[in-house]
Structures are given as C-alpha cells and as structure tokens.
Amino acid sequence: MATIYYDQDADIKRLEGRKVAVLGYGSQGHAHALNLRDSGVDVRVGLYEGSRSWQKAEADGVRVVPVAQAVAEADIVMVLIPDTKQAEVYQRDIKPNLQPGNTLMFAHGFNIRYGQIVPPEGVDVSMVAPKAPGHRVRELYVEGVGTPALMAVYQDATGHAKEDALAYAKAIGCTRAGVIETTFAEETETDLFGEQAVLCGGVAELIKAGFETLVEAGYQPEVAYFECLHELKLIVDLFYQGGLSYMRYSVSDTAEYGDYHAGKRVINEQSRAAMKQLLADIQSGAFAEQWIEENAQGRPTFYKRRAEEQRHPIEEVGRRLRRMMPFVKPVEIEPEPVPET
Ligand code: NDP
Ligand code: MG
Ligand code: MG
Prior knowledge:
Layout: E1 4-5, E2 19-23, H1 27-38, E3 42-47, H2 53-59, E4 64-66, H3 67-73, E5 76-79, H4 83-94, E6 103-106, H5 110-113, E7 124-130, H6 134-142, E8 149-155, H7 161-171, E9 179-181, H8 184-199, H9 201-216, H10 221-250, H11 253-266, H12 269-284, H13 286-296, H14 300-310, H15 313-323
Parallel strand pairs: 2-3, 2-5, 3-4, 5-6, 6-7, 8-9
Antiparallel strand pairs: 1-9, 7-8
Helix pairs in contact: 1-6, 3-4, 8-9, 8-12, 9-10
Domain KARI N-terminal Rossmann: 1-182
Active site: 108
Family: Belongs to the ketol-acid reductoisomerase family.
C-alpha cells in the first residue's frame, strides 16, 4: 500500500522565516505562487526579461524578479518552467545561485531522472507534483479543498527534506486531498508511460482507428464522430466516478456483452507487447534521449506530426459539429502551418 500524507502529517511552520522562489508563472507556477502567498509564505516569482507571464504575475500582486535573483534570494526553489527548458536555465541561472542547505524542488522528475540536471551535494532535492492542471490547483485551494499530489525526495542533505516537501505540499493545499509518497523514477516513468500508452497516444489512436473504420465502410463522418469521440466523455465520466464496473452497470447489457466480446481483440497481445516495449524504452532512457535530441534539432518531427494531426478529418468534422453544440463550450485550435522539409 502506498503511504499517503494528510494535513495532520505536515507542519506549515517549517516554511516560516524561509523564502520561496517559484520559477515560471504558467499553469503550475501561478497556482503554486498564489496558494503559497495565501498560506502566508514569503514568495517571489522568477521569470526572464520579456516573459509574457511577467505582467500577469504582477497584476495578481506577486513580486517578480529575474530567475537568477529569485534563486539567490530564496531558501527553497520550485522549478515550474517547461521541462524542455529547465536544464539550460539550471546551468545559467539556478546552479550558480544555489547555496548549501537550500532546497531544489520540481513538479515532474524528467530532468533529474534522466540526468539533465545534476544538483550539487549539500542541497535537498524533492518533488511535489499536483495531479491536476494548475487552474484546478488554484480553484480547489480557493474553495478550501485541495488537489492530490505525488511527493518524493531525491536527495536529503539536511535530514529534513521530506518534512519540508510535506510543508510545501500543505501550503499549496495538497495535503487536504492526500499526498502519495513516490520516487523521482516512479513518478517520471509512470507519467511518461501513462501519457504514451493510454492517455494521449493510446486513446487518440483508438479514437481515430474507430472513426476511420466506420468512414471507410461508408458511414457518415458526423455519426462516426459521435460514436467514437463525443460519447467517450460520457463513458469516462462513469468510470472516473465508479470504476469500470459502474460504466458496465450503466450501459446496456448489449454494450456490456460487446465490451467482453471485442475488447481483447482490439487491445490484444500485440498491443500489450507494444506497451511493454514503450515502457522498456522509458526505463532505459532511450525515449528521453530521443526527445532531448528532437528538441536540440528544433523539433522537426514534433511540428510535422502536429500539423498532420491537426488536419485529420475527425478534426474537421468535429470542429463543425462542436460549433452547433454550445453546451460543450467549444474551443478552436487553429491548425499550425505545415513545416517545410
Ligand atoms: P507552462 O508552460 O504552463 O508555464 C511555464 C512558465 O515558465 C511560463 O510562465 C513561462 O513564461 C515560464 N518560462 C518559460 N521559459 C522560461 C525561462 N527561460 N525562464 C523563466 N521562466 C520561463 O508550464 P507548466 O506549468 O505546464 O509546467 C511546469 C512544470 O510543472 C513542468 O515540470 C511540468 O511537467 C509540471 N507539471 C505540469 C502540470 C500541468 O498540469 N501543466 C501538472 C503537473 C506537473 P512565458 O509564458 O512568459 O514564456
Ligand atoms: Mg504527463
Ligand atoms: Mg452506443
């Protein structure tokens, strides 16, 4: 069983008299900074000159300074800039300003797990990773509840890295909901696997494969869209609330029998072997190496694949249908230009 910490297991007083720097003011950064401030913590935000987030943070009443200055001022540094930019900013602005006894914190373990950031001895390294987008982390805090989070210690130089991480988790509201103890490796590897095999890669291909099968067989794309994409949300809501059993309880017996009849033919031994291979590449570092190289090359494959996916027929029919469904509060993502090769 996982170890889970709640409010009574964390002491926010540990943060008294200590200065916290939140680097970045995006999805996570704004939520951490505002929640810390409202919990009475001395917080400053670190950004770069010309950042679009700078004015937003100041408008929210938060003090903003350049990253290097924020780190130099702070005892605790939470790194909430994009994962692909962290290593460079670490070398230039963070590392030269870290002091022994400081705490370096993350909300995702990628750069530590894959050695892109190698912190000095003498510094605590920990993680508090809320399991929700930043706007929810802020909204739930304001409502007096909280977001569940993962917590991990990578390096314990002071002997109280864990208590400090829990105090931080409490200050942003996470111990109200429960903070699960993990490691940087477990958080990073399961996060990458989940988004690749299930949440993003797996689900998107499943939707498109179902849609294409129907459309190629001559069925109307609009009908295929509703069956394979729109209705997915209704199904997900059921198992989010009551597990797969509640989904099966709620659908018809024909749908439930269809589930048992078809599921293992679609996600079969070959799909499971592919999942195992994805996991092996995550564990060996092969995937990380590929993604780091893709970034170093200016992301040619990433931008090409994004442009292709944005032009998939399901995106065109979906955009049209959602315009007629104001209740879904449609959001339109403009397709980006196809990169020249
Ligand atoms: P965002 O892209 O939403 O925000 C990044 C922020 O960093 C922006 O304010 C951006 O400013 C700023 N920034 C960009 N480059 C620099 C730089 N060189 N120096 C200083 N600031 C910079 O990031 P997220 O909040 O999504 O992600 C932050 C971390 O949180 C990541 O490690 C991510 O894995 C993790 N995480 C994210 C979750 C999420 O729901 N989004 C959930 C859990 C963890 P500007 O926009 O002005 O360029
Ligand atoms: Mg993820
Ligand atoms: Mg049906």
